Amino acid sequence: MMEGLAVAAGKVAFSLFVLLNFVMLLTWAERKQSALMQDRIGANRASIFGFTWLGLFHPLADALKMVSKEDFVPAGANRGLHAVAPFVALFFALISFAAIPFGDQLWIGRHPVNLQVIDLNIGLLYVFAAMSMGVYGFVLAGWASNNNFSLLGGLRAASQMISYEITIGAAVIGLVMVFGTINLQTIVHRQGELLLGFLPAWGVFYQPLGFLLFVTAAMAETKRAPFDLPEGESEIIGYFLEYSGIKFGMFLMTDFVETVVVAGLVATLFFGGWQFPYLYRDGFHLPGGGILVLSQQVVCVIQVLTFLSKLAFFCWLSLLVRWTFPRFRYDQLIRLGWQMMLPLSILNVVVTGGVLLLLHR
Amino acid sequence: MEEIVKVPKQAEKGSGLTFWQRTYVPEIVRGLKLTAAHFFGNLAVHIFHLLGLWTEHRGAATVQYPEEMRGYSSRLRSLHRLTKRADGSPRCVACMMCETICPASCIYIVAAEHPDPNIEKYPESFDIDLGKCVFCGFCVEVCPEDAIRMDTHILDFAAYSREEMIWDIHRLLNNEPRRAEGIGQIRKMK
Ligand code: SF4
Ligand code: SF4
């Protein structure tokens, strides 16, 4: 009992550690990567004892600034809901990471430890449910601020999230049909096999269209450019208009947490999660036939590192997209969601079903 | 005859786009390729710089002011300075020309008798209120003695109070020009 609790606490701690550090690093990467993409240098002045370390202290400075700023609540706002909204948004973003596996089973003595915070049979549904609960935070924020612009921002958030959630759901159905499960750990296990004897059986090779649709819709879920209509800080202003200090910071954090969660989800569903090509429980099985034997713990470490690298890569990709494309117009956004992506994802389901039927005959 | 231009009621919808452009995908890939090329190119340059290589090639357009400065044009009107004679005394003969022409009335000179009868006068005090100065350069143009110049290329003389913005004769005399060579050339400052 105690052991179980300790293991669970350890996994939660590890997962939150990874998630929050990724979020912190993303605020740094956002500055530095956008700077590199635009031939600039990026924030590099925050220093401790003269050390700037490529601007790595800027997230710290941000946090200090956010915490020490005035927490402003507008007159006529619903104080309770105004305070609760950022917590709702951040909470659901944080817990959605729990179902994503970051490694295979690790044997500590004779006890297998599943490297996943919660091993749910309905893992995929859980992540989607948690992510779509988050929209309540944004709608609440817009509604409780007693400001028409905030309210409009909240409405935009709601309609955008609802439109794209449908596509997200429909885009992964094809994948679920291929793997025959919605348990994320099992999905990752299934991707450890080989296609045609050499290609890792990653979801993206089964479902290229599903991958494109899922990535697009998932980026819309994170509400960052080019899908940042609910926020649009600088011109159309969004649901967090009336927020300041750390509550505002929590909304910003929510976006980054969602970015990491989406990156983890994309890696898990379409790029083999923690699977390193040709790496099995007992070591590398080279396609030529050789076996490089590794101990179980080493394999586990490689798997976790693989997952973290994939996570980092997809965070990088999402930043690349965010700093490359201009924002959609609202009608374009809704048209893209309902008239292009939804029919395409349904087509994907139908075609996948047909192919599966033919193959199983 | 005037030509009547018909203004379309509605902006024409993306008729000029090809099918692939309307699907976004190839264009998105093109855009990502461009920005990713910048990202990796600059990243490589910065890594080379960390290793001390290829430092003559800059990885960013940013000028790290105030550690680096750009060379300005020689015509630039910057902070004033008073020029000196060979013995180090000011060239200014307190003729009051600059004080008279100054459109902002921000030059305040107190004249005194110079021991040398050829020079007649010298400024006992010479204050310029830079908080009022409009940097027109008339004082430089009008000076018969080439005693005042605006060629220091110093632009960062902001201060926390109005009093500190008034530069007296000692500061004006000891204003060393801080010129970087070549317009647009970037120079490291010490
Ligand atoms: S630059 Fe113009 S305003 Fe400034 S001190 Fe000279 S004459 Fe006066
Ligand atoms: S015009 Fe020249 S010489 Fe005359 S007072 Fe001004 S600085 Fe001195």
Following the backbone from N to C, one meets helices and strands of chain B in this order, namely: HHEEHEEHEEHE
- Mean pLDDT over the residues of chain B: 86
User: Radius of gyration of chain B, Cα only, in angstroms?
Assistant: 28 Å
* Uncertain stretches of chain B: none
Q: What is the average of the pLDDT values of chain A?
A: 88
Major sheet attributes of chain B:
3 strands, antiparallel
* Largest beta sheet: strand ordering of chain B: 3-4-6
* Structural class designation of chain A: mainly alpha
Tell me what portion of residues of chain A adopts beta-strand conformation.
5-15%
Number of strands of chain A: 7
Bound molecules: iron/sulfur cluster
Strand order of the largest sheet of chain A: 5-6-7
Give a brief description.
The complex is a heterodimer of chains A (361) and B (190). Chain A has 361 residues and is mainly alpha-helical.
Write a structural description.
The complex is a heterodimer of chains A (361) and B (190). Chain A is mostly helical. Chain A has one domain. Chain A has eleven helices and seven strands. In chain A, α2 packs across α9 (245-270), α3 runs antiparallel to α4 (123-144) and α5 runs antiparallel to α8 (208-221). The model of chain A has no long low-confidence stretch (mean pLDDT 88). Chain B is of the alpha+beta class and 190 residues long. In chain B, β3 and β4 form a beta hairpin. Chain B has helices spanning 19-22, 25-50, 97-101, 138-142, 169-173; strands at 68-70, 81-82, 107-113, 121-129, 148-149, 166-167, 186-188. Chain B folds into two domains: 7-62, no CATH class; 81-173, Alpha-Beta Plaits (2-Layer Sandwich). The mean pLDDT of chain B is 86. The A-B interface holds A 33, 35-41, 212, 320-321, 323-325, 336 and B 24-25, 28, 31-32, 34-36, 38-39, 42-43, 46, 59-62, 64.
